[in-house]
Amino acid sequence: MIDVVIAGAGPNGLMLACELALAGVRPVVLERLDGPSAALKANGLVGQVIRMLDRRGLYEQLSGRPGPPVPAPGFMFGAFPLPLHDLPVNPVYTMLVPQRRIEEVLAARAAELGVEVRRGQELLGFTQNEKSVTIEIAGAPPIEAAYLVGADGGRSTVRKLAGIDFPGITTDDSVSRSAHVTVPEALVTADGALTVPGFGVVRPFQHTRTERGLISWAPMPGRPALINTGERGRPGEGEMTLDEMRASVRRVLGAEVPLGPPEGDGPHLLRRLEGGNTRLADRYREGRVLLVGDAAHVHSAIGGNGLNLGLQDAINLGWKLAAALRGGAPEGLLDTYESERRPVGERVNMQTQAQSVLMGPGGEITALRTLFGELLQLRETREHIAALIAGADFTYDMGTATGPLVGRWAPDLPGLTALTRTARPLLLDPTGELSAGAWADRVDRVAFPGLDTALLLRPDCYVAWQGTSADGLDDALTRWFGRP
């Protein structure tokens, strides 16, 4: 019997497979497509997941540059510029990298760890009992696994077959248009901004809102420039064309932009999306079937939160599922996947809906933006928004453990990144007097001078315990890693 079958070889499914493999579990990944998708999807990563990828040794491959990630000096929220350079702690990290490159790097890492990816195999159905899940595959014999994880996207077959509801909100009148284009060089400034005669400047990699709609301009390094518009009540007919893109830009800006076709080899983007969904699975688990990523939640792409949310789902689930498979996991450990990650999904759905409202057309929205813009002048507001964007605003319940870092993601500490590559629990001990004791086979104790207090880190880098003596340490070890 296979330990875990993961349906879907996108970023979330591959990340989960890597985490399971690091914990000694050998999953099998099923992918309906015969090869990696050529579809153009996400263009980058935002949030603390970038630091997590660095802690797993993947950042330099993805970013293409040496050294650790550094916080972004600014970002955006609701088509407002969001200065971050003056925050005492800036949790917002960004990285421009196409999704197909993310999948390529994660697939290579999964192969390195011995993960089997079976392409061209479509999941048709499954049945489950108290001990296993039997999975039906088109044109292949059934597979029996201890667990099945749906990482198969917003239209998840696994979620539907499991009978898990997907409530939320659908908007029918929104239209988004995106295209790779060229523009005359004279219209692009040295810092990448687009100057539009009759309108003004469209800043790069930001949303610009007008009374008529939304526009963004992204001069991607080494790739064709990408332009995107968002409007209400402007449906298209037939296949999307470059003329339709030009007309949408003209409506939003009230001025002409001479857009030309992209240069170089494709694939090139020319896409129209009508309507949108914000939905959250009513539960993340049904027996031995679990959901990660878009299978569990969908929302607007505003702010690039999707992969930050989904990849951290996978990292949270991986070590807990592995512990359940190895035996000895504390009672209820696997249930904490939903209790910890579903509220984070609720937060992302909330803030992307709020941004959609702030970016909408109309005079009443302009009034709302005036007030919100005043609030953004306050550093406390920007700190709050930055944590929300990064996914760093939620504190997990760690039981009786106390301390300012308990339940939060571990801060960057000198030397910590190298220790987290193995995805093992860590007891960081500055005192030299603590011990993992009977948990030494499951938890690595590391002398860590320079810290004010000792920290117990889970494999997903959340702080499970903090203290200057051993008080409460055994309770925390038992809660998260089982009885000795």
Describe the structure.
By secondary structure, the chain is α+β, with helices and mostly antiparallel strands. Helix content is 29%, strand content 25%. The chain is built from 12 helices and 24 strands. The protein has helices at 11-22, 49-55, 59-63, 99-112, 157-161, 242-253, 306-326, 335-358, 363-375, 379-390, 416-419, 473-481; strands spanning 2-7, 28-31, 44-46, 74-77, 80-83, 94-96, 116-119, 123-128, 133-137, 140-150, 168-181, 194-196, 200-202, 207-210, 213-218, 225-232, 270-280, 285-286, 289-291, 297-298, 426-429, 444-447, 454-457, 463-467. The strands form 6 sheets. Strands 1, 2, 7, 8, 9, 10, 18 and 19 form an 8-stranded mixed β-sheet that branches. It has a 6-stranded antiparallel β-sheet with strand order 14-15-16-11-17-20, with helices on both faces. A 4-stranded mixed β-sheet has the order 22-21-23-24, with helices on one face. Helix 1 runs parallel beside helix 4 and helix 7 packs antiparallel against helix 8. The protein is globular, with a radius of gyration of 23 Å. The two termini are 27 Å apart. The mean pLDDT is 94.
Secondary-structure blueprint:
Elements: E1 2-7, H1 11-22, E2 28-31, E3 44-46, H2 49-55, H3 59-63, E4 74-77, E5 80-83, E6 94-96, H4 99-112, E7 116-119, E8 123-128, E9 133-137, E10 140-150, H5 157-161, E11 168-181, E12 194-196, E13 200-202, E14 207-210, E15 213-218, E16 225-232, H6 242-253, E17 270-280, E18 285-286, E19 289-291, E20 297-298, H7 306-326, H8 335-358, H9 363-375, H10 379-390, H11 416-419, E21 426-429, E22 444-447, E23 454-457, E24 463-467, H12 473-481
Parallel strand pairs: 1-2, 1-10, 2-7, 10-19, 21-22
Antiparallel strand pairs: 3-6, 4-5, 8-9, 9-10, 11-16, 11-17, 12-13, 14-15, 15-16, 17-20, 18-19, 21-23, 23-24
Helix pairs in contact: 1-4, 1-7, 7-8
